Every structure is written in C-alpha cells, then in structure tokens.
C-alpha cells in the first residue's frame, strides 16, 4: 500500500512537470504540453502557431474575465475544456468569487458547503502538485496516457536477502502522456 501511494504521488508530481525530473525519466507532463513556446512532440511551437497552447502569464489576481478568455481561447468549434485544474489557493480564490453570486431557494442546501465548483459547466478541481499560480484548462479528447504493453506496473517475484528477514518486490511502468492538438489546452499563470 505504501508503494502504491508513493507511485500515485510520483505520477501526480510528474503530471504537472515538463519531463526533465528524475534525470529525464519522468513523464512529459502539462508543464511541457501546455505552453505557448518551446518544443513539444518535436514540433516547435514558435514556428507553428497552430501547435501553441493558450497561455496568459500576466501576473495578477485571478478574475472571471481572464478565466473566460482562457476558456474561450481553447474552445474551437464544438470542443471546449472538460476540466479545469489548479492549486488549492486559486480554487479557494475562485470559490470566493462565486459565493457572493450564489443564491438558493432551498434552505437545506444553504450552508454554502459546495462539493464541487464549475465554470461554464466545467468542473474545477485542485491538486497538491499543481504548479503554484497556475490554472489549467484541459481537453482530454486530445490527450492520452500511453503505456508500453507489459510494462503497466508489473511486479517482480519476491526477493529475500539471505541476511535479513524481509522481502522486496520491484515494479516498472513505461509510458508517457501525449497530446495530439495542443491548441485545445490552455493555462493562466502567475495568478494569486
């Protein structure tokens, strides 16, 4: 169970990274995928604007206008973000923006204990490992977690050292997070 929790934490941390952690053995996460510049999938975003993600990095307080622009900028034709992921701080900031506008007729649910928040009908969640000051607007239709066949957390047989009353088992996973259309992903950065 401890190994399982550790692997979940490692995956969550790598998900928000750029793939350079752990000597380059980490998955290529949102830090590389959702960028307006740099190279992703061997395609230079500066050369090919159709491959650029939306990125607004003007420092400032989180506000509804910036969220609306980001949401609309990554919405093309009938596609739109399906999930907004951010930090606990920005989640709570958005919650503070929503509460004054919240009204209810049903007094049984008037305790303001929201289970989940949404923006334009899209769920907003927070993650401990999300990069500070960042709010991601993600469309999973264009993302895939690819796993090498036979390498999806396969455990070895127990190994028992001759000089200890313990055993160890190793596990391996080989794969990567990929995106086939970066322009459907976006983020706000440097937000408070």
What would you note in describing this structure?
With 192 residues, the chain is of the alpha+beta class. The protein is 22% helix and 25% strand. The chain has helices at 2-15, 21-24, 30-33, 64-73, 88-98, and strands at 39-40, 43-44, 54-56, 83-86, 117-119, 122-126, 135-138, 143-155, 171-179, 186-188. Strands 3-10-7-4-6-5 form a six-stranded mixed beta sheet, covered by helices on one side. A two-stranded antiparallel ribbon has the order 1-2. Residues 104-112 have low confidence and may be disordered.
In short:
By secondary structure, the chain is an alpha+beta fold. It has helices spanning 2-15, 21-24, 30-33, 64-73, 88-98, and strands at residues 39-40, 43-44, 54-56, 83-86, 117-119, 122-126, 135-138, 143-155, 171-179, 186-188.
Keywords:
alpha+beta; single chain; 10 strands; two-stranded antiparallel ribbon; 192 residues; globular; 22% helix; 5 helices; six-stranded mixed β-sheet
How far apart the termini lie comes to 36 Å
Q: Structural class of the secondary elements?
A: alpha+beta
What is the radius of gyration? 20 Å
Strand order of the largest sheet: 3-10-7-4-6-5
> What would the principal axes of the Cα set say about the shape?
globular
* Mean pLDDT over all positions: 89
Strand content: 25-35%
In terms of quaternary structure, the protein is single chain
**Helix-strand sequence:** HHHEEEHEHEEEEEE
The main sheet comes to: 6 strands, mixed
What proportion of the residues is helical, as a percent range?
10-25%
Number of helices: 5
Number of beta strands = 10
Poorly predicted sequence stretches spanning 5 or more consecutive residues: 104-112
């Amino acid at each position: 169970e401890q190994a399982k929790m550790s692997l979940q934490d490692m995956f969550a941390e790598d998900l928000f990274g750029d793939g350079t952690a752990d000597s380059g053995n980490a998955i290529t996460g949102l830090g590389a995928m959702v960028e307006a510049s740099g190279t992703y999938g061997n395609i230079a975003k500066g050369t090919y604007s159709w491959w650029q993600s939306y990125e607004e990095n003007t420092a400032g307080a989180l506000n509804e206008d910036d969220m609306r622009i980001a949401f609309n900028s990554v919405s093309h034709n009938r596609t739109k973000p399906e999930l907004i992921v951010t930090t606990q701080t920005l989640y709570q900031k958005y919650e503070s923006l929503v509460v004054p506008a919240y009204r209810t007729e049903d007094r049984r649910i008037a305790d303001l204990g929201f289970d989940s928040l949404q923006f334009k009908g899209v769920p907003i969640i927070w993650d401990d490992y999300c990069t500070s000051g960042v709010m991601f607007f993600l469309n999973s239709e264009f993302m895939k977690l690819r796993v090498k066949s036979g390498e999806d957390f396969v455990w070895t047989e127990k190994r028992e050292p001759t000089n200890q009353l313990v055993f160890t088992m190793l596990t391996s996973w080989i794969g990567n997070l990929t995106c086939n259309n970066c322009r459907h992903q976006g983020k706000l950065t440097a937000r408070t």
